[in-house]
Amino acid sequence: MSAKELGTSAKNTWCPGCGNFAILNSVKTVLKSIQDDGTPIENVVLVSGIGCHAKIVDYINANSFYSIHGRATPVAEGIKLAGPELKVIGFAGDGDAYGEGIEHLVFAAKRNIDITMIIHNNRVYGLTTGQYTPTSPMGFMGRSTPKGTLEYPINPLELMLASGATFLARGFSHGLEQLKEIFKAAINHKGFSLVDILQVCVTFYNMYEYYDKRVYELKEHDPSNYSLALNKIREWNYHDEAPIALGVFYKKEKETFDGKFISAKKDINLDINANIDKVLADAS
Ligand SMILES: Cc1ncc(C[n+]2csc(CCOP(=O)(O)OP(=O)(O)O)c2C)c(N)n1
Ligand code: SF4
Ligand SMILES: [Mg+2]
To answer: Ranges for the Thiamine pyrophosphate enzyme TPP-binding domain (predicted)?
Structure first.
């Protein structure tokens, strides 16, 4: 299926200029390239949460599951366990993934399940018209905090690294080529991968100028080194005026939960069969 055929007839309702368009276009290109590499589109499942970002699954002609706010991660995990051959890609917002669904992300990272989570981090609740999220900076003035928030943001990549994620990267909705590279690497990674995207919401929190001045591409960084990754991830805390690195911070090969789950399931089935044989033999 070509990138064009991966589109749908659903009317796109994102605001003109929204950073979600860059994510959509990059994902479609990467899905095309993954098919060229031998994965049929039938083996790809997209999962979304609830928010502006979530509409992405309406605009891609592939198997998808529109889940509920905060629950894209466990739904993606369930699909992976039921169909280990599938490539499962979850899309979630910052409110969605880093607020209501944060515990799911922590445990998915901890168990290193082989799914990819793409976080459209616009640092605001877009769909519900502009409330603050866990990554909004201190003092953010939104619909629910007209005088400014009184708390500092979390650094989601630091939390994910500490939780056990084995692939961590940051992209920006002004960097199409880099987004494609990062997405492909994340989807091909065997283990829990998370891409935090600075996805600009032009309507409720337009950060293009701010980011354009500060972002730079990670070069000569060794992503296999945990301490270096941690230092780079801590360089910008989603609040201060530091430079903002884009690229792959961390990548590690490690046994996956789904791999262990399949082996455990086989053993259990064997035990059950052995027990049934014994019961039948005893009864005869
Ligand atoms: C369980 C549940 N809680 C809250 C909501 C209300 N709600 C819908 S979208 C949304 C915020 C979306 O923000 P975010 O996840 O950052 O996505 P964005 O719209 O910015 O892409 C909220 C709070 C809901 N639909 N379901
Ligand atoms: S409200 Fe913001 S995130 Fe939602 S479609 Fe518009 S620009 Fe995009
Ligand atoms: Mg958001």
So the answer is: 50-197
